[in-house]
Amino acid sequence: MKKKINIAIIGLGQIGIYLYNELKIKKKEIEVKTGKLINVTAISAKNLNKKRRFKINKKIFYKNPLKIIKEKKIDILFECIGNSAGISKKIVEKAIKSKIHVITPNKALISKHGDYLSSLAEKNKVNLEFEASVAGGIPILRTIKEGLATNKIRKVYGILNGTCNYILSQMDTTKDTFHNVLKKAQKLGYAELTNPKLDLNGYDTLAKVKILSSLSFNKNISNNKYLMEGIENIEPKDFDMAEQLNLKIKLLGITELIDKKLFERVHPCLVKKNSYIANVNGVMNAVILEGEPVGETVLQGEGAGPGPTSSALMSDLLSILRGNIKYPFGISQRKRKKIESYNVNNYVNSLYLRFEVKDKPGVLSQITKQLAKYKISIQRLIQIPDNLKKKASIIIITHNVKEYNSKRCMVSFRSNKNILKAPILIRLF
Asked: Which of 74, 217, 227, 315 has its CA at a distance of 20 to 30 angstroms from the CA of residue 183?
């Protein structure tokens, strides 16, 4: 007789309801591939009567998800609520302590509490799976944990937020403003209607970078100093200049070891037009790993949405059903280590700088003198006058400069009344 596995789904938003339907229609396929019978015995959400894409079985509905663990025999729990605290953390913690396997796409939860929850799962001999927390349908975490398990990874980088990539791609092709493209993204469901800030300011990508760091370098989730910038200040004229320079603008999440120290960062980058990463457009994600002996490995796919996320959740489910009880982060929590943080101020990089200035004699020399004061040397300079408005755009590509010097220099321009607004800084990658 085939073993019956009882499943609970907590959270019936876009992802949770899509997963619920997938589990129903693929029940026999899962049985064939694992030899196990699955049964969704409990579901939970804030509102029973909310209009949803798929019908739900009201007989198994619980408003309070904590009651499910008390009243039902559950083998596997899907946490699809989101957030790093509150009921999300409570239900996962309670489930693990009750020896229930947990699967979640919740990057905020894992990036903040992953160490604690991993230790808890290890202690209770259950799985904590979170493949869907990074890059949606791309199996990047399993690739690092299993496919590249014996490789020494040096660097991981990529496009990890589909919302930002869509906005930048659209601004590039249409030359429309950030705000107009954001509205379009919201209408299409690519960006949140009420609060898209976590996507746009880089925070979402940073949470994913922290998870990738932990897996790649066998380390604890970091609270290290990091570099994080979003895409809100980029304008159409930056894409025009990038085109002239044979470059593309992309928001990248990057983690690497520099002198055996961890450097995590998220910021817009100017990448070579003919590079692989430059040609990943729309809502697509891409992750590139550099390791030894594998060399360079590239994974690309849809990074968000209920379909790709559900695909990753289902892969975690099948792994558990096949009896793969494993450490959440690939190795025992006891063997994971702390890595010293790289000093962001020492980071050296070439920069793209754009100044909007009054078109009058002496302004350019004021800028170049200030750059020289902070040891920033100019590789290329372009000046574009706007005679009608009596202003000009000054674009400067620098030689390599320390982050510390560039930060101080940008602050120093605030007092210059000939500079009409804060300079735009984009790092070359």
From this structure: 227
